[in-house]
Each structure stands twice: as structure tokens, then as C-alpha cells.
Specification:
Layout: H1 2-22, H2 30-52, H3 57-82, H4 89-115, H5 120-144, H6 175-178
Helix pairs in contact: 1-2, 1-3, 1-4, 3-4, 3-5
Length: 181
Amino acid sequence: MGVASVLTTSAGAGGVLMSSIGVWGKSDLAVGIGAVGGAGLGAGLSGLWLANRPLSNGQALRYGSDTAWGITGGVLAQYTLFGDNSTGSAKGGAAAMRALGATAGVLSGALQIRSHDPKPIDVLEQDLLGGLGLGLGMTIGTAAARPPGWGKWPRGGGRRPRGRGGGPGGGQPGERLLGTR
């Protein structure tokens, strides 16, 4: 479980980092080539690292968790700052956010396991609570960003439409409700 966590997240971080660098390449294929090459490089280097320095399951999960949270933070920063459609100069900034997040996650994980040997259940518990907090935060952000027209009639006290029913525009009050017209 632990070795797979290190290899997988290192491959992911390498792929994100090198594909982000590939954005600045001359060819449209640079991003894909960077992602595949970076994934292989990340998995290979972490395999060499594990061969020379075996980790406990808790340490391996901590490294994997920190790396995954770093990548997640980079992607969320990208969407927050540059939106969903990053083109032109924003494309480079979005790539920089992803690369920064991946790098921060790998460094954080490597520094954490130098001095700590957490129990695997503690790492999983922290990840579960972090995921719940992230979900709650995204829900609050979505609720706070009200769509255009939110709060208009009938809830927000805007003008009532004219037509059948009471008020100026026709009919007697209650006709539409009672179906007498």
C-alpha cells in the first residue's frame, strides 16, 4: 500500500510538473510528451529512492498524501486565478500554478517523512477530514457566487409580471388561483 502510494503520486507529480513546463514548448505535442516523460521520471526516481531508503506504510502514505494535496492545491489555484479557459498569457500562469503545487507537495511530503513516522490510520483520517473541508469550502464558494437574476421575483421582491391575475393588467384578485377565468 505504501510503496504504491509513493510511486503513483510521484508519477502524477512528475507528469503535472513536466506537462506544465511543456506548455511553453514550441510544439502542441510538448504537453503530452512532458506528461508521459514526467510520469516515468517521477516513478523511476521514487523507485530508486525507495530502494535506498525503505519507508514505513505511514511515511509512504504521508508522502503520497502531501504530494496529492499539493497537486490539488495547484489545480485549485489555477482555476481560481485563471478560470476554466486558460489561453494566451493565462495559459502560462495556469501551468505555473500547477507546477508550483506539484513541487510544494513533493517537498512537503519529503520533509514530513524525514522526522515523522505517522500511523497509516492517522494519515487517512487527516485526508478524510481535509477532503470534507475542501468539499464544504467549494460548496460555500458555489453558494456565494449567486447566478445573475438570483433573488428576483418571486422571492426577492421585484415587480410582478402583468397579465391575468390580480393587480394592474387584468382580472380580479384570486382568479388565477381559483381557476374561475
